Each structure stands twice: as structure tokens, then as C-alpha cells.
């Protein structure tokens, strides 16, 4: 008899290939990037941000993304996203055929000028241009436009964000063409109460369906607590990174927590930990975070049945030395 899977309650979106790799000096070979994608897809992961389509000289870690995107798009049931800094990046993303284009917009205008070299008004024009360009794509090939609302929870230097202003900005971005908003704790400042408040404020402004996801860091050890607060509030998409790369919530620990409290992710933890081992081969000297892979799964823990493996992980002997 074939085991059946319960409906997924929360989608875990893997950000390690984007946030994680761009925070490192290593350039992952194309074969290693593909092995990472295949291993996580085999574990049941359904959503992955493949990388950032910035100018090639800005993020050399993101070179050769076209091969990785083509590989990911060939895996059944996997939703593939690419992050872009501007309209030109969106054009490159459209050429790859990704399912989702993610554009960062900083909640504070000073940070927008520092990180994006654009004011809020200029970023809104960029959102409109990208939305109009996407609308020109045939419906069956049209990607979804997502705006990542960066530093939505504030900054370590300037303090908590104005939640009413964040909700207002989310409303403005939605009117400009953003199809969904991700609340991002870019500076690692969020706490569970703030997560609940801001989630509700944004939902009141734009509706639940327009802001289903959250991106959390574990800078001060509150990553999982914030993720639980988001899920209890009703969030259905949580971003995380394998091994906590980039300082994000650890994918393995997040999946364990959710499955432990009866929230199904569709991800097989044994296979996910095997994927971590696979990725570690290609990142010599990089310390992967996470408690679950070190402690192991407790007796009696029932993971969901594994998805069919689409591609075996290369042996350690094939990894770069």
C-alpha cells in the first residue's frame, strides 16, 4: 500500500541558495548547486529561491544561474523563484522562465537609498514597470510578482519600524502591482509580539491572501519563536535556509518544529538532513547551524513518507577540495 500525505499546512520556502550563498565568499559550482536543489526537492521541498539576478559583477556567487534555474524547473512540483534588484533583473528572470520574481523594497527610505540607490517613489515606479512587463507575458507563462518588504520589523540602529507606515507601504506596493508581500526581518530585530501585530496590521490593509509569507533571521535566537508566532497568526509560507546559511532560520529546525506540533510541511526530515550533508561537502570551512541535525530525531517521531528521489546526491569524492 502506498502511504498518502496529509495536506501541507505551511510551505517552507528555501532561501539558502540566495541569502546563504551571497553571504559567503565561495562560488558554488553549477553541479553542486544542482545537487543541492535536487536533494531538497527529493526531500519534499516545494518552493525555492534559486538566487539573485543582480548585475554579474555585483554578486559573483550568483553566476551561472541559468543552468540552475533550468534544472529546478525540470523537477516536478517545485516552485522556482528568483530575486531581482530592478527592472533589468526582472527581464533576465523572465527569460529564465521562473515562477516568481521577488523584488526587495526597503521599508525605510534611508535604507532604500543606501542599499538600492533609489527613493521609495523610484522603487514604486520600478514595481509598476515590472508589473506591466509581466502583464505582457502570456498568462500560462506569467510569473508572480512578489515584493520583499525589507527591514519591516525595524533596524538595530534606528529601532522598531512604524507598523502603521509598514502597512501603508504594503498597500501602496500592492496598488502598484505587487501580487504578494513578504514581511522580512532583514536586521534580525523582530520579536513574537511584533510579528503578530505587524501581520495583523498588514492583513487589515491588503488582505490575508496578499501577504502569506514571512522571512525571519535568527540573529538573537528568536527565529523559531517568531516563526511559531507567524504560523499561529495564520502565515502559510515561512522562508528559511538549509543550515541557517545567511543567518536565517534553520530549515531543518523549522521543519522539525512544525511537524512536532502537527503542522504538516510535506518534507521528510531524514531526507532533508541528508541534503544538508550533501551541501556541506561543497562548503568547506563553513559552519552549518541547527540543533535537529546534531541531536537527531527523537524516538517515536514520525516523519512523512519521502518524495521520490529525482537525482542522487554526488559522492563526497566529487566535491571540490
Automatic annotation (TrEMBL):
<keyword id="KW-0456">Lyase</keyword>
<dbReference type="InterPro" id="IPR013785">
    <property type="entry name" value="Aldolase_TIM"/>
</dbReference>
<dbReference type="GO" id="GO:0047445">
    <property type="term" value="F:3-hydroxy-3-isohexenylglutaryl-CoA lyase activity"/>
</dbReference>
<protein>
    <submittedName>
        <fullName>3-hydroxy-3-isohexenylglutaryl-CoA/hydroxy-methylglutaryl-CoA lyase</fullName>
        <ecNumber>4.1.3.26</ecNumber>
    </submittedName>
</protein>
<dbReference type="Pfam" id="PF00682">
    <property type="entry name" value="HMGL-like"/>
</dbReference>
<comment type="similarity">
    <text>Belongs to the HMG-CoA lyase family.</text>
</comment>
<keyword id="KW-0479">Metal-binding</keyword>
<feature type="domain" description="Pyruvate carboxyltransferase">
    <location>
        <begin position="10"/>
        <end position="273"/>
    </location>
</feature>
<dbReference type="InterPro" id="IPR000891">
    <property type="entry name" value="PYR_CT"/>
</dbReference>
<dbReference type="InterPro" id="IPR043594">
    <property type="entry name" value="HMGL"/>
</dbReference>
Amino acid at each position: 500500500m502506498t502511504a498518502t500525505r496529509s495536506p501541507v499546512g505551511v510551505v517552507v520556502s528555501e532561501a539558502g541558495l540566495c541569502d546563504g550563498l551571497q553571504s559567503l565568499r565561495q562560488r558554488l559550482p553549477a553541479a553542486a548547486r544542482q545537487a543541492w536543489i535536487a536533494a531538497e526537492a527529493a526531500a519534499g521541498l516545494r518552493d525555492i529561491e534559486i538566487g539573485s539576478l543582480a548585475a554579474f559583477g555585483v554578486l559573483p556567487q550568483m553566476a551561472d544561474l541559468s543552468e540552475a534555474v533550468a534544472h529546478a524547473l525540470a523537477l516536478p512540483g517545485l516552485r522556482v523563484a528568483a530575486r531581482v534588484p530592478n527592472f533589468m533583473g526582472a527581464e533576465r528572470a523572465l527569460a529564465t522562465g521562473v515562477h516568481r520574481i521577488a523584488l526587495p523594497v526597503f521599508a525605510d527610505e534611508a535604507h532604500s537609498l543606501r542599499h538600492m540607490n533609489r527613493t521609495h517613489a523610484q522603487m514604486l515606479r520600478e514595481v509598476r514597470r515590472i508589473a506591466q512587463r509581466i502583464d505582457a507575458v502570456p498568462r500560462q507563462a506569467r510569473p508572480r510578482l512578489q515584493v520583499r518588504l525589507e527591514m519591516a520589523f525595524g533596524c538595530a540602529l534606528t529601532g522598531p519600524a512604524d507598523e502603521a507606515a509598514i502597512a501603508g507601504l504594503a498597500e501602496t506596493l500592492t496598488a502598484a502591482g505587487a501580487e504578494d508581500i513578504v514581511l522580512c526581518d532583514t536586521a534580525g530585530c523582530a520579536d513574537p509580539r511584533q510579528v503578530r501585530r505587524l501581520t495583523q496590521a498588514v492583513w487589515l490593509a491588503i488582505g490575508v491572501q496578499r501577504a502569506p509569507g514571512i522571512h525571519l533571521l535568527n540573529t538573537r535566537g528568536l527565529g523559531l519563536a517568531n516563526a511559531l508566532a507567524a504560523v499561529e497568526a495564520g502565515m502559510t509560507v515561512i522562508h528559511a535556509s538549509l543550515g541557517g546559511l545567511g543567518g536565517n532560520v534553520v530549515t531543518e529546525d523549522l521543519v522539525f518544529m512544525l511537524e512536532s506540533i502537527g503542522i504538516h510541511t510535506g518534507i521528510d526530515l531524514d531526507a532533508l538532513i541528508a541534503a544538508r550533508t550533501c551541501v556541506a561537502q561543497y562548503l568547506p570551512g563553513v559552519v552549518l547551524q541547527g540543533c535537529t541535525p546534531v541531536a537527531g530525531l527523537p524516538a517515536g517521531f514520525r516523519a512523512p513518507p519521502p518524495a521520490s528521489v529525482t537525482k542522487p546526491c554526488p559522492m563526497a569524492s566529487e566535491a571540490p577540495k
